[in-house]
Design goal:
It is a single chain. The chain is built from 15 helices and 12 strands. By secondary structure, it is α+β, with helices and mostly antiparallel strands. The strands form 2 sheets. A 9-stranded mixed beta sheet has the order 1-5-6-12-11-10-7-9-8, sandwiched between helices. A 3-stranded antiparallel beta sheet has the order 2-4-3. Helix 1 crosses helix 15.
């Protein structure tokens, strides 16, 4: 068989295994409305997706993944609980030549179940571990929900917390912001110069001196932004003990059971994470019940922070040796269902497998 036919056969075998596990197969459009994806991910999605324009439908994107259309389909009238699977091509722009494909097959499995979210996490992870057994992969888990809870519990302004939460999926930007908010790094020079000007003049005067308008921001938008910059400059730094705990959390890597012990130890000093840590403990119990050993399962608190920007809880990935992309990955995305559900929401978790990489690891291509 040709390489493409071999990969297709591997995909169909994985697809059949998901159906055997109780998932209902679903189809998703190849072209998705760009507006929906832009609302969810912001303009950054343009750097990763292929964009086209339709005279009737407007701006469209080639499918970057399946999660959004599957969630939309479920929220429009799916039964509860529900398990879905899918198979098809996804498309991702790449900035550099290398081993990352622009188009590849993806097979996935999604669970919508509000009765026991942590048990659903364990179900998905254990199923993936079973299907990928024998390939020599390293499984790693994480929990973005713990990091998000820690940020929400900081003793700082609501604006600073919102900024940190918005950049959780951009690790370098997040770290730079945290360094500045904690007083460990100076304010960017351009911002400092602007604040100096605002200290001696009003936003209206600066707008008038700048000349004609270019872009979409109205004078009131610019004035509001200037007020926000002044408020941020006057805010007290994040307290050193809180900042230290957050830095500790960002770097936490340990077996899952040991990570839980560590998190229990810092919870009294960062009480906002307590509910998320309790959910983590419940998940480990559910994983153990499915034969996954928490004492050896790898945990990284920052796992998933460079993925699509909808994971907000449990995350996982399966990696091969070398520099291959993840063979499989997934996680929990409860908030996404609320955004797409038009007032409705349901806890959801899922993941994807790349059959091309599975076939490669098996030596079939």
């Amino acid at each position: 068989m040709s390489p493409k036919a071999t990969i297709r056969a591997e995909a169909e075998a994985l697809f059949a295994a998901f159906q055997a596990a109780g998932a209902v197969p679903v189809e998703a459009d190849l072209l998705l409305p760009a507006e929906t994806l832009l609302d969810l991910y912001g303009e950054d999605i343009r750097a990763r997706a292929y964009v086209t324009s339709d005279p009737i439908l407007g701006e469209m994107m080639l499918r970057p993944d399946f999660t959004v259309p599957v969630v939309q389909a479920h929220m429009s009238g799916g039964a509860e609980p529900a398990r879905y699977c899918y198979m098809g091509e996804v498309f991702r722009k790449q900035e550099h030549l290398g081993n990352r494909a622009h188009e590849y097959l993806q097979v996935g499995f999604e669970v919508f179940d509000r009765t026991a979210p942590e048990a659903a996490d364990a179900e998905v992870f254990a199923l993936f571990a079973q299907m990928l057994a024998g390939l020599g992969l390293r499984a790693t888990t994480g929990d973005i929900g713990i990091l998000m809870a820690a940020v929400r519990g900081l003793d700082t302004t609501a604006r600073r917390k919102a900024t940190l939460l918005r950049h959780i999926w951009r690790p370098k930007r997040f770290r730079a912001l945290l360094d500045r908010f904690a007083g460990r790094a100076p304010m960017p020079q351009a911002r400092a110069q602007l604040l100096e000007k605002l200290a001696t003049g009003t936003p209206d005067a600066l707008i008038a001196a700048a000349g004609s308008f270019i872009g979409l921001r109205a004078p009131e938008d610019i004035a509001a932004r200037a007020a926000a910059l002044i408020e941020d400059a006057n805010a007290a730094p994040i307290k050193a003990p809180e900042a230290a705990l957050l830095y500790d959390l960002l770097s936490l890597q340990a077996p899952a059971q040991a990570a839980l012990t560590h998190l229990r130890g810092i919870t009294p000093m960062l009480p906002a994470i307590a509910p998320a840590v309790d959910r983590f403990a419940t998940r480990l119990e559910a994983l153990a019940a499915r034969g996954i050993a928490p004492a050896t399962l790898a945990f990284e608190a920052s796992l998933g922070r460079t993925s699509m920007e909808y994971y907000d809880g449990f995350v996982f990935s399966f990696h091969a040796a070398g520099d291959l992309p993840p063979v499989a990955s997934g996680g929990r995305y409860d908030a996404l269902t609320a955004v797409l559900g038009q007032g409705k929401s349901i806890p959801a978790v899922g993941g994807v497998i790349r059959p091309g990489l599975v076939a490669q690891l098996k030596g079939a291509i």
